[in-house]
């Protein structure tokens, strides 16, 4: 699919964002977001869509992950310094809905041992899904470290709402890397729409605390 956003447009928008961050001397590492306004798309009638795509460069440098694991996965998680919860922890949490909500808020992603993945929704209820978090299966044939690295380059699920906002990187990245992530994100999101570019009203790029830069 041909993009309607030129490289120069992306470069200038990102240059303005990075300059604004430098001018305000912010200590935090601002996230860079792509925002898409929809056009002629009835979210109540048109087909629902969702998806995820791998980006070329890590968009979330400090992804906070929790493992719901069996003994082997918990041992591996502890070795890697990753928070993990075992079967006994799940039993304790299941009796405390407030704790389930707290856990859902505190982590960006959840990996679960394949042997536990059917048990977890029964134990935790809908607390994770209500927070927009989903269980990602983890087998013993996979590298836990590698899977978490992949998650850090993967956009979260996109649900159909009138304005989409997805994380494409952070202000500590090289401009060229951000441009690559933006191009992948734009083309992917547009491909999900029924009429592609005809359903796009606007495209903006912005940092967490900066002003939006219109690119389409």
Supply the helix-strand structural class: alpha/beta
How far is the N terminus from the C terminus?
Answer: 16 Å
* Assembly context of the chains: single chain
Which second-level CATH architecture of the largest domain applies?
A: 2-Layer Sandwich
Radius of gyration, taken over Cα atoms and rounded to an integer in Å = 19 Å
* Biggest sheet record: 4 strands, antiparallel
**Count of runs of 4 or more consecutive helical residues:** 8
Beta-strand residue fraction: 15-25%
Uncertain spans: none
Number of strands: 8
- How would you name the CATH homologous superfamily of the largest domain? Ribosomal protein L1/L10, rRNA-binding domain
Organism: Drosophila kikkawai (Fruit fly)
Pfam family, one: Ribosomal_L1
GO cellular component, one term: large ribosomal subunit
Keywords: Ribonucleoprotein, Ribosomal protein
Overview of the structural elements:
The chain is of the alpha/beta class and 216 residues long. It has two domains: 113 residues, Ribulose 1,5 Bisphosphate Carboxylase/Oxygenase, CATH 3.30.190; 87 residues, Rossmann fold, CATH 3.40.50.790. The protein is built from eight helices and eight strands, in the order αββαβααβααβαβαββ. The strands form two sheets. The protein has a four-stranded antiparallel beta sheet, covered by helices on one side. A hairpin with a 5-residue loop joins strand 7 and strand 8. Helix 1 crosses helix 8. The longest helix has 18 residues. The chain is globular and about 55 Å long. The two termini are 16 Å apart. The model has no long low-confidence stretch (mean pLDDT 83).
């Amino acid at each position: 699919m041909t993009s309607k956003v030129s490289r120069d447009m992306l470069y200038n928008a990102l240059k303005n964002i990075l300059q604004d961050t430098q001018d305000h001397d912010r200590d935090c590492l601002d996230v860079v977001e792509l925002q898409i306004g929809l056009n002629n798309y009835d979210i109540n009638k048109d087909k629902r869509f969702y998806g995820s795509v791998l980006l070329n460069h890590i968009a979330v440098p400090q992804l906070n992950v929790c493992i719901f694991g069996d003994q082997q996965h918990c041992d591996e998680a502890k070795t890697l310094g990753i928070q993990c919860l075992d079967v006994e922890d799940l039993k304790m949490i299941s009796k405390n809905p407030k704790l389930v909500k707290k856990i859902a808020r505190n982590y960006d992603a959840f990996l679960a041992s394949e042997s536990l993945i059917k048990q977890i929704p029964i134990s935790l209820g809908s607390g994770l899904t209500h927070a927009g978090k989903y269980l990602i299966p983890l087998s013993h044939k996979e590298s836990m470290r590698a899977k978490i690295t992949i998650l850090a380059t993967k956009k979260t699920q996109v649900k159909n709402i009138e304005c989409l906002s997805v994380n494409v990187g952070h202000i500590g990245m090289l401009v060229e890397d951000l441009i690559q992530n933006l191009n992948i994100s734009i083309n992917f999101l547009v491909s999900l729409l029924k009429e592609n570019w005809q359903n796009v009203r606007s495209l903006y790029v912005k940092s967490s605390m900066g002003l939006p830069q219109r690119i389409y």
